[in-house]
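@channel sequence for tomorrow's demo:
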Amino acid sequence: MGLYLRVLWRFRLLVAVGLVLAIALAFASLVRVGFSQGSVSLSYRQQPTWQSTTRLFVTQEGFPWGRSVFPTTPAAAPPTGSSGPSGLAFADPGRFAGLAVLYAQFINGDLIQRQIRKAVPQSHALSATAVTDPATNSALPLIDVMSLAHTPSEAVRVSRAGADLFRSYIAEQQASADIPANQRVLLQVVSTRAIEVEGRKKTPALVAFLAVMIATVGLAFVLENLRPRSPAVAPADMARPIGTARPADTAASPAGSKHPADTTLTA
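structure tokens (generated this afternoon):
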């Protein structure tokens, strides 16, 4: 570890430049810098994706779901439903679940999608699906109208617009067919919510930062191998005349003995 720190400290200027460059590239991979009307503007390169779901309840007048039993069907009444004291006919509850599946396909069809594209921006996706019971996987009288957008408010606006457009379409078709009001299918908005399905990815910024720092550290060690540092020489040794013994060597020699450096060669 000490060797790595010494190399990095020796080339600290190079490491500092690499660190600044790595931070700049990581920032540039996340944020787009622009100029608008003489001022600098910053915006994210990638926008999050939000999904909004507007749930529709397929039902009819009289709230049949609040009854424990349906009124007795008179003998002269059609066999397709039950009639109450007010003359309101109640459909088979299972029919509404089947209508939910059918209406979801209507929303996904070309006719409704063309009308939706006229009402909402084309960059926003909108689709529908019938809700099923997770325990039995059977269809429920509920439809989920879903949309995707970059902000939660825009996603909610698009899904509500698509749901309202389909409700208007069904009402127009019922009116054109002269269906009595007490026999019409109703589409009621149950809820609208938005969740984030995909956030901003930070992986490109992390990859850019690590790539630059790894290249910087690698370059520092390459320069260390090309330009190795010379061994350090003590100042006392630099001042000592050549051929004289160091004080430590003299103290370590036995009494009366001479250091090889002090021996004079004779002929």
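heads up for whoever presents: The chain has eight helices and eight strands.
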